[in-house]
Amino acid sequence: AVMDTFVNGVDLPAPQLNGIYGIDKVGNTVYLCVGGGFYFTVLDVTNPAVIAALGGLDITTIIPALTPRPFEAIVDGIYAYVNMGAGGVTDGLRILDISNPAAITLQGSLIGGGAPNFLDDALGMGALFYVAPTVQTDVATGVT
């Protein structure tokens, strides 16, 4: 049997708070979707005993009127495709330039269907990106 050993952790400072909803790892860099603080965080895990924060982005600075939560990220090269959702948010997918983790910038977005059809899941495959909307259905009546 293989046993995992806890090496270290990292405390996320405010405004990141808590609630890691999604994670992607490329090499020695980890990308976190921190839904509890509406934050996208980049960590260097080269030395697991000394995890270093490289930067991040407070999602509320790019969507000030809404408070969508970043649920998951798919990193490809210098871009992070961050799936967003919360109570019918219509900007479901955010494309972030992460080439400089200390200065992450918004590059684009994909509009979701709005309540109740915000983007719920995503999958990147090569040049294609698949998204799945949430469709709420009353199982008693079959009405969406």
Major β-sheet profile: 4 strands, antiparallel
- CATH topology, by name, is Methylamine Dehydrogenase, Chain H
SSE run: EEEEEEEEEE
CATH architecture: 7 Propeller
Can you count the helices?
0
InterPro entries: LVIVD (IPR013211)
Pfam family, one: LVIVD
Can you lay out the helices and strands and say which pair or pack?
Elements: E1 20-26, E2 29-34, E3 39-44, E4 52-58, E5 69-76, E6 79-85, E7 91-97, E8 105-111, E9 119-125, E10 128-133
Structure description:
It holds the Pfam family LVIVD. InterPro entries: LVIVD. The protein is mainly beta and 144 residues long. The chain has strands at residues 20-26, 29-34, 39-44, 52-58, 69-76, 79-85, 91-97, 105-111, 119-125, 128-133. The protein has a single domain (20-133), classed as YVTN repeat-like/Quinoprotein amine dehydrogenase (Methylamine Dehydrogenase, Chain H). It has no helices and 10 strands. It is 0% helix and 47% strand. The model has no long low-confidence stretch (mean pLDDT 72). β3 and β4 form a beta hairpin. It has a 4-stranded antiparallel beta sheet with strand order 1-2-3-4, with no helix packed on it.
